[in-house]
């Protein structure tokens, strides 16, 4: 669903920004634009940040971190 109508940012875009390391509404705005214009969506953006961080797996007790690799291919090029 659309979260920020000013820039057309969706909840998935905000979640993706959080997954990429954003943890504040300002960092999300810098990454995808949501919340960076009029500010009406910042409360919703903060809620998505909290939900995304809460759902993220925590680091193992031994301190090792898992790294994710994404294979991004442009649409239509297979």
UniProtKB/TrEMBL annotation:
The keyword Electron transport applies. Pfam families: Fer2_BFD. Keywords: 2Fe-2S, Electron transport, Iron, Iron-sulfur, Metal-binding, Transport. The keyword Iron-sulfur applies. Residues 2-50 form the BFD-like [2Fe-2S]-binding domain. Belongs to the Bfd family. This is Bacterioferritin-associated ferredoxin. It comes from Mycolicibacter algericus DSM 45454. The lineage of its organism: Bacteria, Bacillati, Actinomycetota, Actinomycetes, Mycobacteriales.
